[in-house]
Amino acid sequence: MSEEKKLEGSDTSRHFLKQWIAEDVAAGKNGGVVVTRFPPEPNGYIHIGHAKAVSIDFGMASEFGGVCHLRMDDTNPAKESDEYAENIQRDIHWLGYDWKDCLYSASEMFEQMYSIAENLIRNGQAYCCNLTQEEWKQYRGVPERPGTPSPSRDTTPERNLDIFHRMKAGEFADGEWCVRAKIDMASPNIHFRDPVIYRIRHVPHYHKGNEWCIYPMYDFAHPIEDALEGVTHSMCTLEFEVHRPLYNWVIDRMDEMGLLREHNGVKIRPQQREFARLNLNYTVMSKRKLLQLVEENRVSGWDDPRMPTVCGLRRRGYTPKSIRDFCERIGVSKYESETDLSLLEYCVRDDLNKTSQRRMVVLDPVKVVIDNWPTGKVIEVEVANNPENPDDGTRKIPFSGEVWIERADFMEVPEKKFFRLAPDREVRLRAAALFTCKSLVKDETGKIIEIHGTYDETADYGNPADGRKIKGTIHWVSVQHAKPIEVRLYDRLFSVPNPLDQGDQDFIQFLNPDSLKVVTGYAEPSILDAAPGERFQFERVGYFCADSEDSKPGAPVFNRTVTLKDSWSKGK
Ligand code: ATP
Ligand code: MG
């Protein structure tokens, strides 16, 4: 689909996954039921790539009147924790999805997995192997030539069972033995060459403690989890496509063991399909890399507003709707591609433009002094809170003879097409007055510290009496009423589009040194009421969100969500 079509927000109506499920439903497969699952490993926080998977898994279930299970894929005890598991749930709920009472975890199925492995061993379909890692790789060989069978491939089921039981009992060290499925050492698919299904790990599990010292491998555990939960459509990213024959092999064995569930008297046979993962530029999405950024204090935590994590995006000011909209626009395909971060930024701008109230805040101030303004006079001007939404009403802002404006709104020698303030030029101070610059006050370095001039006394709230056209309108904040606020100007985390693709250079080197600038802004008084998490458009500046951690009513701290315009695509 063309980019243009995507930007129109066209429903990606019949992507291949939707078609696949629709055909199954029409054919009455699985008794007509649709059950999907999202299977995060609780070893990190979920990021925008996971949000894509979440939107597909939950989206497909709801489209076909089914349910989507949330399953903690906790088969690798080393890096998992409750902190991660809890935050994953919180983030999925925040995105707007719900698994009802279908929360599962792989570790709750360890017992069944163990007995399935026992069964396979008993049936001569799996065996214990004590090749070292290096030997195992060597024996496995390369796709072009058949591999070499392990010397223990043909040991008897009795002996294998004995070893397996002793593995479980903790008699062996990590890596000393493993269990392998007995499939096909000559298969061109390397994953089919007697893959490892159980390994020894003397590591306590965050839920199961020291109950186990053997853990199932993903390729074995995943189809079992799907089958035991009655999942019908198991969708994952493309790298699992080559694992699909193994997935089906495990499902076939479960079928033989009579372990598949039924719906309306029809057996549920889980099937797997794969889609392209989301790759987003100017960031990294591997959990390992994100963890590294956190551990090395390159960012303030998983929820640092520069992180591509869902909690980081939330703290930055992204809305659930903007993220869902983004996932809809990128669509679903089988081809790897790179998505431009600008599209995500476009989506949040689009949403916030409709929903956020406007405020006047000056981030880089220079003082304007209106010489003919009556001393001490203060007026209140009334402005709409959100021109896109009249229901948001209006508010009053104090205006006086001295106001802050943005330094960038003045040019001593104006460039072509610069229509804002310049010597002897008139601009509208939004909704308040028409001001003409007459003179400048500079400090000893030549820096402008005051812009002096006069206002048009006949113009009412900036509307000229003679109807003349005013080319520039700028925002302002009354000096006497301005509230200083902390503003965190966030920008892209990396300064190159593909930080992981820089030859042998470490991605850390490509962190954007300007990804965070903290400034003091001058804001209109009403800003002090901002609640943590509340979002605003600072007029003509960008979209900002009161920080959920550090902002307090009366002392707000703002994060820049996104600039008002896409400055990156124009070369900044
Ligand atoms: P790691 O970074 O350790 O490789 P992971 O990103 O695969 O882990 P999981 O918790 O296993 O993390 O992912 C849960 C689900 O999210 C998986 O089904 C996975 O395919 C999907 N997923 C992960 N990253 C992306 C991505 N960038 N785009 C789309 N889906 C993704
Ligand atoms: Mg994974």
Description:
- The chain has 572 residues and is an alpha/beta fold.
- It has four domains: 26-108 and 218-275, 3-Layer(aba) Sandwich (Rossmann fold), CATH 3.40.50; 110-214, Glutamyl-tRNA Synthetase, domain 3 (Alpha-Beta Complex), CATH 3.90.800.10; 287-357 and 485-570, Beta Barrel (Ribosomal Protein L25, Chain P), CATH 2.40.240; 361-475, Ribosomal Protein L25, Chain P (Beta Barrel), CATH 2.40.240.
- 26% of the residues lie in helices and 23% in strands.
- It has helices spanning 3-7, 16-26, 48-63, 82-95, 110-122, 133-140, 157-168, 218-229, 244-256, 287-295, 310-316, 320-330, 341-355, and strands at residues 35-38, 67-72, 103-105, 126-129, 178-181, 196-200, 214-216, 233-237, 262-263, 266-267, 271-275, 357-359, 361-362, 365-370, 379-384, 394-399, 402-406, 426-429, 433-442, 448-455, 473-474, 477-478, 483-490, 516-523, 535-538, 542-546, 557-563.
- It has a seven-stranded mixed sheet with strand order 12-25-26-27-23-24-13. It has a seven-stranded mixed sheet with strand order 21-18-19-20-14-17-22, with no helix packed on it. Strands 4-5-6-7 form a four-stranded antiparallel sheet.
- Strand 9 and strand 10 (266-267) form a beta hairpin.
- Helix 3 (48-63) packs across helix 12 (320-330), helix 8 (218-229) packs across helix 9 and helix 12 (320-330) crosses helix 13 (341-355).
- The longest helix is centred in the N-terminal third of the chain and has 16 residues, at 48-63.
- The radius of gyration is 31 Å and the shape is elongated.
- The protein starts with a helix and ends in a 9-residue tail after the last strand.
- Residues 1-12 have low confidence and may be disordered.
- The protein binds adenosine-5'-triphosphate and magnesium ion.
- Adenosine-5'-triphosphate binds at residues 39-41, 49-50, 52-53, 73, 236-237, 277-278, 285-287.
